[in-house]
Amino acid sequence: MDGNAPDFAAASRAALADPQLRGNFRRAMDGLMTKRAAQFAEPAEWHGVRALAASVRLRALSKLPELLEKLEENCTRNGITVHWAATTEEANSIALDILHKANAKLVVKGKSMVTEEMHLNAVLEKDGIEVLESDLGEYIVQLDGTMPSHIIMPAIHLNTKQIAHLFKRKIKDAESREDAAYLTDLARRVLRAKFQAADVGMSGVNAAVAETGTLCLIENEGNGRMCTTVPPVHIAFMGLEKVVEKLEDVPPVISLLPRSATGQPITTYVNMISGPRKSGEKDGPREVHLVILDNGRSSIYADPELRDTLRCIRCGACMNHCPVYTKVGGHAYEAPYPGPIGKILVPQIEGLAKRGAMPHACTMCNACVEICPVKIPIVEIMGRLRVEAVKPGGAVKDGGAKASRAEAMVWSGWAAMNASPTAYRIATVAMSRLGNAAPSSLPMLKEWTNVRTKPRFAGRTLHDLARAKGIPDV
Amino acid sequence: MSDARNSILTKLRKTRDAHPLTPPASDFAPIEAKQWADEERLPRIRRLMEAVHTEFIDATEADWPAMLREFLSREGVGSLLYAPATDAGKRLVEGWDAASTTLIPYDRPLEDLKPQLFESIEAGLTTTRGAIAETGSLILWPTADEPRTLSLVPHIHVALLRADALFDTFLQAMREQGWADAMPTNVLLVSGPSKTADIEQTLAYGVHGPKRLVVLVVHP
Ligand code: SF4
């Protein structure tokens, strides 16, 4: 194992031993699955809109370089300053530059997974800039000093009681009340003062429209609108795959995203921004910046099979339906994107040396594939990454990093045995006679028997039984 | 940083050309098929929006200012921010009896109004460009006269909705109103008051945006 690679196995063991955490996730995921299912009660509608949304995303990917240029051209015409970043370091320094020029001391942020990917908050704090997450879930997680455990509901791992304790500890004059309405109102009061005072607002982007140079953001709380409307400068961050071709491509995406994510027909706000304050307008930021981040996405794009990863609209439904995610929770992955999409995206961004374990945290049950609103073949990509993890020379960074000589030997032995009838007969007879005598502490076998009973070998092979029934050998 | 730009675009172009992708045609029929009869749209919008705590008041062209005044005084709302240069704003002030609710014109830049806006103004009035039956959403189209924060910062947002400006879907609205030809600085769909479920999935209203959304339906 890589010395500083996150240890998924250890982290998930710890998560599994925490009944509170498991209860919190189980309850939340059950609720989300039920609400989502109610939104897609008509199969014909689901299949039709889903095929449309998938085609919108595929069309965008088929013209990705042209659309990004068009987006840049139209944003620029609208008065938005466009920046390109190959790496998260570059994106962070672009952000710092803008903040320094604006002489910014206080930043308010709406939800942005890309900035989680960049660890932007840590960079800003190191620079002495106060940065405040304003999505309630993100705010809670930030106060708690942890990471989001779900891309849509960042604080889903905590219950009301835990949040009440946290607020009591961290917010001046907070009362100790386990009441969601009280806690929400408390956060409203703290954050309103910050929105008013902030020098810069930051946000993510759910879809950027090349045709019109428009940034679309969806949310329920209004914090996204605050961050993009009230401070004098707005910086939006997007992964380069977030572009769509036409304005008409937005409705299909918006139709599926909230329904898949939280089971609501639409979010409270769909916020479409096409520029800074124009002359004569009374509000809105005077500067709008768009930072387009690559961070490994262009390498994902280069491979025709892996490319499908970039269709994702980040609805989080795959997490809600994942039997592994539901049990271990979001933190066990120690990654900005947990759950099925994280298991295919993060290893491709960060490499298989560090993230080779992630594609194995999957039972291949296909639940995520069935509900993904843009039909990403998540499980196929998972299989591909498993192969690349042990086979050098593939498309993904650090391919072959998980190769093990013992495992390779076992598999080539297995292949040889199955290729020769004689070897197969000898091996199966030997197993049926001696297999049960093998101690469960044998290397490799131990990994299985640690948590399971060793299976018993039958006393007679299938061939023996067939022969006894009078079926001749071929 | 144009280095990054060129290297990203070059790489994307090269690898896409090596493995081009043929997307399936985009068939918008499943969205276009969503249609409601004229008399169904408003009740549907109302049902969907009331389910997320939106309040409705029925009025006519003649009486909406009076209906609004009555609502505000009944609810004890002391101040209403409005857009003085719009037709609705002009209608509003005609004969407004300021005894119960003070009208405050949004007639200067945000910077000059910020403390008042955040700390004392209780309600804001905007128009809409219609509403969408499929999802129960208002279309807000802020302008120089009707700023963005009018519907965002005050605790109560009152939106005027003309009962003859209803669409079936978001797609239909943007097509019929020709959005793609001239997007303004900001367009919004608003489907209820601000809400969150971030604390243990418990729905709570009024987290950052308006705590209450009141739709004043103007029937022809
Ligand atoms: S992979 Fe599919 S289900 Fe998962 S977040 Fe992305 S779009 Fe949603």
- Helix % of chain B is 25-40%
Mean pLDDT of chain B: 96
Largest sheet of chain B: 6 strands, parallel
CATH topology name of the largest domain in chain A, in short, is: Rossmann fold
Number of domains of chain A: 3
SSE arrangement of chain B, N to C:
HHHEHEHEHEEEEEHEEEE
User: Helices and strands of chain A: which structural class?
Assistant: alpha/beta
Q: For the largest beta sheet of chain B, what order do the strands appear in spatially?
A: 1-12-7-4-2-3
Low-confidence stretches of chain B: none
Tally of helical segments of chain B: 7
What is the SS-derived class of chain B? alpha/beta
Strand proportion of chain B, as a percent range, falls in: 15-25%
Strand proportion of chain A: 5-15%
Low-confidence stretches of chain A at least 5 residues in length (pLDDT < 50)? Answer: none
What is the element layout, followed by pairings?
The complex is a heterodimer of chains A (474) and B (220).
Chain A: H1 8-16, H2 19-39, H3 43-62, H4 64-78, E1 80-85, H5 88-101, E2 106-109, H6 113-118, H7 120-126, E3 130-133, H8 136-144, H9 160-170, H10 180-197, E4 200-203, E5 207-209, E6 214-219, H11 223-229, E7 233-239, E8 243-244, H12 250-262, E9 269-273, E10 287-293, H13 297-302, H14 317-320, H15 323-328, H16 339-350, H17 352-355, H18 367-371, H19 378-390, H20 405-419, H21 421-434, H22 445-449, H23 462-468
Parallel strand pairs in A: 1-10, 2-3, 2-4, 4-7, 5-8, 7-10
Antiparallel strand pairs in A: 5-6, 6-9
Chain B: H1 2-18, H2 29-32, H3 38-50, E1 55-60, H4 64-74, E2 79-82, H5 87-93, E3 102-105, H6 110-119, E4 123-127, E5 131-132, E6 137-140, E7 156-162, E8 166-167, H7 170-176, E9 186-190, E10 195-196, E11 204-205, E12 212-219
Parallel strand pairs in B: 1-12, 2-3, 2-4, 4-7, 5-8, 7-12
Antiparallel strand pairs in B: 5-6, 6-9, 10-11
Features:
heterodimer; A: Fumarate Reductase Iron-sulfur Protein, Chain B, domain 2; Rossmann fold; 3 domains; 23 helices; B: 220 residues; alpha/beta; six-stranded parallel sheet; 7 helices; 4 iron, 4 sulfur cluster binding (chain A); LutB_C (chain A); iron-sulfur (chain A); LUD_dom (chain A); metal ion binding (chain A)
